[in-house]
Automatic annotation (TrEMBL):
Protein name: Acetolactate synthase
Organism phylogeny: Bacteria, Bacillati, Actinomycetota, Actinomycetes, Bifidobacteriales
Similarity section: Belongs to the TPP enzyme family.
Positions of the Thiamine pyrophosphate enzyme TPP-binding domain: 444-649
One GO MF term attached to the UniProt entry: flavin adenine dinucleotide binding
The reaction(s) this protein catalyses: 2 pyruvate + H(+) = (2S)-2-acetolactate + CO2
Organism: Alloscardovia macacae
Length: 715
């Protein structure tokens, strides 16, 4: 095993605040020589309930208010699993793969805003979670992953299923702990949960040695955290706020560029208030779809490689970008040096490392989006009441024009499949049209994901779960499981709250009035919000085993597979940029007679896998749709079934394309609405001509002023 990383000795450092939590201070230890267990420490100095570390872990999760946990057991985490029983206060969901446990916890976190929790074993159990940890880091998802580790005395011996989990996760997690002492468990859990969910959210790993799980300790709650140096800034100071308000008040072509950070901050109300106060257009990243309703005409949709023409046109031609919790990622900016070339930038983000990382802002604001907007909107309104609001009529005229002429609705002749299969874009629109408005949408990664983001009507925040920064195929099904667990939990809690309200109203009418306004009435939600997964045939096969978890946990979801028989997104790039050489992108799972050249129709290995049979093998209802009539009926049937998972295998056109598209590395000005059609080029030319004219006028004015000064000094 490699040398310990700096954090590996973490749980054995001396504890300055120990006295305040009823724990005696121990002398500093190293990871190689574990601290004496609480049982061997002077008992008189310890207070609290005596138990094992494993029991303390379960109790800590309960005391943190964790209600749902995902995972798979194994030798190095078995004491923790032994501590789970009927009395355990949280629901435990046994997945079929640790990657899925991580993604399910992510789906749960994205739908609730609370950290998701997964518990897995050491070695392969831990490494199987790596993709989900990396995914959570890229998309700032609050996640706590607890991994088993060999006993502290065995570390470095290549013991069975030993791996350096802290070393592996250190560069891809927000924080990683190695716990060698049972007594540390409640404090480390408190800290991990806090770190995961505060500031810029992210994944925290707790690698828990077997000896810490079996060791005895004295449990007390609450715990004082020892996190010197960790205190995320949430409030902006007054000066930058007034600078930002001033810039907004001076802008005639402003754009609100909203990223996942705004969603994580729960800032949808505040974003709406800013939009209403300023009449500004809004564009969002993939992660922020739903931050304000699509039905709000200020919403120009998604920007980026497959963003709307109006959204991309707005950003490219803006004079002021207000970036809220957004990363200026390459998928959004295209060629960075040509991104929004004439715009000043106000960048608001809770993570100071994001500010100026890709684009230097004019006004940097470090803080929590919701908190900062709560403070910024009144500043803007104060300026408006003194000076009047800025007239954005001309700006909206340009954007409305782009919106009307270049809609992303796929209704052109070339969108029609030529082989009699379904149009995948039509399927997504039909799914959205028939959906319960409370639906939580989840996607895999590929063309289907982009069509879902473009064509589903999002009206509420936290109803769109998608792997954005990492683009993790296989995210979909486990994330849908996590979302369904979350919606079931929300439903139970709402029902309980309604019950409390109704019993309160029976005894005391004065309290029930205020309580009734905050809690949804039982009639508002008669079942948990449904979850629709829109997945690709390729993505689905990466984690399809989770159908078993979904069946046994009775957490039904609805699954639409846009089966184009190919790795469609990669194939689209091959069509456009690699001479239509379709190397390694054929899946054949929707091709008849494929997979076995010698097979005669009806006998061969076609349709492998047969998604309908696969669904049935896992206790789900499996349906197939090859025509629009079949599709409409299948969607209706799926929406009507609440007690079982329904999977629909939609046979869609493999040559369908995602448009618009900015080819990787290109300027957004070159966005293709379709092949050969670049609607923003003219607008960009006009913009640059106007800028050049402005610059000339400015230079002339400068020269005239200089001449006047020279003349005066000659006199
Ligand atoms: C784990 C992983 N492996 C490979 C890729 C590269 N990749 C991106 S999209 C894609 C194809 C996705 O195919 P499918 O799920 O069928 O969706 P489609 O594009 O056909 O809608 C691939 C292979 C990835 N994003 N993630
Ligand atoms: Mg596909």
């Amino acid at each position: 095993m490699a040398l310990p990383t700096p954090l590996q000795a973490f749980s054995a450092v001396s504890k300055p605040n120990a006295a305040s939590v009823g724990i005696s201070a121990q002398s500093p230890q190293t990871a190689a020589t574990p601290a004496p267990s609480a049982a061997t420490a002077p008992a008189a100095a310890l207070t609290g309930e005596k138990m094992t570390g494993a029991q303390a872990l379960v109790r800590s999760l309960e005391d943190l208010g964790v209600t749902d946990v995902f995972g798979i057991p194994g030798g190095a985490i078995l004491p923790v699993y032994h501590a789970l029983n009927e009395e355990t206060k949280f629901r435990f969901i046994l997945t079929r793969h640790e990657q899925a446990a991580g993604h399910a916890a992510e789906g749960y976190a994205l739908a609730t805003g609370k950290p998701g929790v997964a518990i897995v074993t050491s070695g392969p159990g831990a490494t199987n979670t790596i993709t989900s940890i990396m995914n959570a880091q890229m998309d700032s998802v609050p996640l706590v992953v607890i991994t088993g580790q060999v006993g502290a005395h065995q570390i470095g011996t290549d013991a069975f299923q030993e791996t350096d989990t802290v070393g592996i996760t250190y560069p891809i997690a927000k924080h990683s702990y190695l716990v060698t002492d049972a007594q540390d468990i409640p404090r480390v859990l408190t800290e991990a949960y806090h770190i995961a969910g505060t500031g810029r959210p992210g994944p925290v790993v707790i690698d828990l040695t077997r000896s810490a799980q079996t060791g005895e300790m004295f449990y007390s709650w609450p715990q004082r955290m020892i996190l010197p140096g960790y205190s995320p800034t949430t409030h902006a100071h007054g000066k930058v706020l007034s600078q930002a308000a001033r810039l907004i008040q001076q802008s005639f072509r402003p754009v609100l560029y909203v990223g996942g950070g705004a969603m994580r901050s729960g800032a949808s109300e505040q974003v709406q208030r800013l939009v209403d106060a300023t009449n500004m257009p809004v564009v969002t990243t993939l992660n922020a779809r739903g931050i304000i309703p699509d039905s709000d005409t200020h919403n120009l949709g998604m920007i980026g490689m497959h963003g709307s023409i109006a959204g991309t046109g707005a950003v490219q031609n803006s004079d002021l970008l207000i970036a809220l919790g957004a990363r200026f990622s390459d998928r959004v900016t295209g060629k960075l040096s040509e991104f929004a070339p004439r715009a000043r930038v106000i960048h608001i983000d809770i993570d100071p490392a994001e500010i100026g990382k890709n684009r230097e802002p004019d006004v940097p604001i470090v803080g929590d989006i919701a908190t900062v907007l709560d403070e910024l909107v009144p500043e803007i309104q104060a300026l408006q009441s003194e000076e009047g609001s800025v007239d954005l009529t001309n700006w909206w005229a340009l954007l409305d024009d782009l919106r009307a002429n270049y809609p992303s609705d796929y209704t052109r002749a070339e969108d029609e499949p030529t082989d009699g299969s379904l149009s995948p874009q039509w399927v997504v629109k039909e799914l959205s049209r028939q959906a319960d408005p409370r639906t939580i949408w989840v996607a895999g990664v590929g063309q289907h994901q982009m069509w879902a983001s473009q064509l589903v009507d999002f009206e509420r925040p936290r109803t769109w779960l998608s792997s954005a920064g990492a683009g993790t195929m296989g995210f979909g099904l486990p994330a849908a499981l996590g979302a369904r667990v979350a919606s079931e939990r929300a439903y139970v809690e709402a029902s309980e709250a309604a019950e409390v309200n109704s019993s309160a109203s029976a005894s005391d009418t004065s309290t029930s009035v205020s309580a009734a306004t905050s809690a949804p009435s039982a009639s508002e939600a008669t079942d948990p919000a449904p979850v629709w997964l829109i997945d690709g045939d390729g993505s689905f096969q990466m984690t399809s085993q989770e159908l078993a978890t979904i069946f046994h946990e009775n957490t039904p979801v609805k699954i639409a597979i846009l089966n184009n028989s190919v790795y469609g997104m990669v194939r689209q790039w091959q069509t456009l940029f690699f001479d239509q050489h379709y190397s390694a992108t054929m899946l054949h799972d929707g091709d008849e007679h494929a997979g076995n050249a010698s097979a005669t129709p009806g006998e061969g290995f076609f349709d492998v896998p047969d998604f309908v049979k696969l669904a049935e093998a896992y206790g789900c209802v499996g349906l197939r749709a090859t025509t629009q009539e079949e599709a409409e009926a299948a969607i209706e049937q799926a929406n009507a079934i609440d007690d079982r998972t329904v999977l629909i295998d939609f046979r869609v056109w493999k040559d369908a394309m995602v448009w618009p598209m900015v080819p990787a590395g290109n300027s957004n000005d070159n966005v293709l609405f379709r092949l050969g059609e670049q609607p923003l080029k003219n607008v960009a030319m006009q913009r640059e001509a106007a800028a050049a004219q402005n610059a000339r006028a400015q230079a002339e004015a400068e020269e005239a002023a200089q001449n006047a000064r020279a003349e005066r000094s000659n006199l």
